[in-house]
Design a protein that fits this description.
Radius of gyration: 16 Å
Shape: globular
Number of strands: 2
Largest sheet: 2 strands, antiparallel
Number of helices: 9
Oligomer: single chain
Order of helices and strands: HHHHEHEHHHH
């Protein structure tokens, strides 16, 4: 079922101040957000205190107080939700690191087949810092990484969400992997 039009209309209503529209958006996209959260959580340690449902719920709680006219399309909403998921996982890793009082930060496995061979494990906080650096150079590239890495979106899903071609996704993804490999090696 194509939910692009209803989601777009509801995002517009939400941006105009209709708080109930967010609940309707979430009902329409919950399954996709849950699937993305499940992919993101698959890289986490089994002892992680969050699960996919809790991650989606946390995304929702962070969306409630917000309104943004930049979410006039479904893809922009998913890109923002991917960013929220990353931020939530980073905050959790920081809290976990603080509890350990100097212990090693939480590590995540780069399970995407293209990344697995290059870097089997990476510190989530190091990855986040590399993404913050990249964001100063190319914010759109970070949205692509959030979608591909943190939610496991396919090339086609990423292209649709960002409004770019699949070839651009492939080219930018190759650059992003090289950039991150370089930054995470040091």
């Amino acid at each position: 079922m194509d939910t692009e039009k209803p989601v777009t209309d509801l995002l517009s209503a939400w941006a105009s101040g209709d708080r109930a529209a967010l609940d309707e958006v979430m009902a329409l996209v919950y399954t996709e957000l849950y699937r993305a959260a499940r992919r993101a959580m698959a890289r986490e340690d089994r002892s992680h205190t969050l699960d996919p449902t809790a991650l989606v719920n946390e995304v929702y709680l962070r969306l409630v107080p917000l309104r943004s006219s930049s979410w006039e399309a479904r893809g922009a909403f998913f890109a923002f939700a991917a960013r929220l998921m990353r931020n939530i996982l980073v905050e959790h890793a920081r809290a976990n690191d603080a509890e350990k009082r100097g212990g090693k930060a939480e590590r995540v496995s780069l399970t995407h087949p293209e990344l697995r061979a290059e870097a089997p494990d990476v510190d989530l906080l190091d990855l986040h810092n590399a993404l913050l650096e990249l964001e100063t150079i190319d914010p759109a590239m970070v949205k692509l990484i959030d979608l591909r890495f943190f939610t496991g979106a396919t090339e086609e899903e990423t292209a649709a969400a960002l409004g770019i071609s699949r070839a651009t996704v492939q080219r930018d993804w190759a650059f992003a992997k090289r950039f991150l490999a370089d930054r995470l090696r040091s």
